[in-house]
Amino acid sequence: MRFLSGLVLVIACSEPVQPSTGFGGLGERCGIAEPCAEGLNCRGGLCLAQPRDAGLATSDVGNSMGDSGAGVQDTGSAGIEDAGSERRVEIVLNRPEDGLSIEGGERFDAVAEVLGEDLAGLDVRWSSSLDGELGRDQISPMGRVLRSVTLSQLGIHDLIVEVLDGDVPLARDSIAVGVCGWQMIGDFERDLEGWQRFGDARRDPGGWLELTGNARSRKGAIYKVSESIQPGDVRLAFRISTGQCDEPGVCNLNPSDAADGFAMNIWDVDSPEALGAIFEAARRGGGLAYGVGGPYGDFEGKAFHVEFDTWYNDLRVGDQRYTDPTRQNHVAVTLDGNPFNHVAFAELPSIEDNRWHEVELVIDRDRVRVSIDGQSVIDQRVEGLDFKGGYIGFSGTTGYFTNYHRFDELRTRPACEP
Ligand SMILES: [Ca+2]
Ligand SMILES: [Ca+2]
Ligand SMILES: [Ca+2]
């Protein structure tokens, strides 16, 4: 191989400087007198894209697969090898661009170029790191392989092409493709499979969850116990409705006797069994059925909450345990089971209008964003925030004063920007 490497180096150094304005386009013929356009290399008499990784392997050296050595880019010239026992093949995934981002269900065209002296009997296999094998194609005489691709799983895929001799991969290339979209966690149209109810929470026949009912001294919660939210960045959406009319929608409001509110909670606990004890310990009224830490108890774990608080708690009144940061209805981010710990908040005077509102939450490292009906209401850094993920659900309460507390259509949007 020493001889081969030396020869490759000579070839690399003797390549003409590429012109800044193009001549041969992708897949067109080229030569010393017919250079390729910028960004393309003349290899085997054709203008081809520069390989990003792992273009080269020989059929009898299995461990060279996946090698992304710096020399690969310059080893592309076909016909160097004169030993009949080795088969030199290269593949480059030319389209789409590395880092493409698409919506779920969107189809795109992929193009791979295969280079080698003898392509007879070889196939190209397409696969995805998330979806598995996508299909196999024969290689056209020009070495080009086209495929229309649809990726099903949301998230970041490695789209992989491999040249196969039988089932033996000879060369591969890959790019990252992000598939974006909302994934429904719960729409509550039929049943509560995968969810656990606590206290007064129930599924409404209308296809949403009611946490309290419009009655005094209620406390309810529901948690997704069949899966948990992963640590790190997260994007979630759900719908809420609170007010005193029996059906969601426009309703005359008397905010003076409406309370107490509800919260989306994510508890970093070892198992769903811990949620029962948390619910039992959590307080009614201003505790919003998640208050187990700070002035409400001795919980010392990690948790993340977005509360929709419709009652002003005030330490100076009766047996109340903390003072809210505003007399207005508010949305707030609180932490670790402590409803007093408003690390970010915004006033929402009309949230008790009994209508459905669309809530979106984005946690991007220590930056938290909350939007309601498409309007940003919280967008700030929370010092020291280290989102741990955990079991997600909703809790709500009433006290002396009451409201319905409905939520629906919990969705997540996996990371999709490669
Ligand atoms: Ca629903
Ligand atoms: Ca309150
Ligand atoms: Ca509050």
Oligomer: single chain
Q: Average pLDDT across residues?
A: 85
CATH class of the largest domain: Mainly Beta
Q: What is the rounded Rg? A: 30 Å
Count of strand segments:
26
Helix content: under 10%
Hetero groups in this structure are: calcium ion
- In N-to-C order, the SSE pattern is HEEEEEEEEEEEEEEEEEEHEEEEEEEE
In CATH, the topology of the largest domain is named: Jelly Rolls
Tell me what the CATH architecture of the largest domain is. Answer: Sandwich
- Shape descriptor: elongated
- Counting DSSP H or I runs of 4 or more residues, the number of helices is 2
In what range is the share of β-strand residues? 35-45%
Unreliable spans are 1-22, 52-84
Count up the domains. 2
* Major pleated sheet: 8 strands, antiparallel
* Alpha-carbon distance between the two ends: 37 Å
| Class by SSE composition | mainly beta
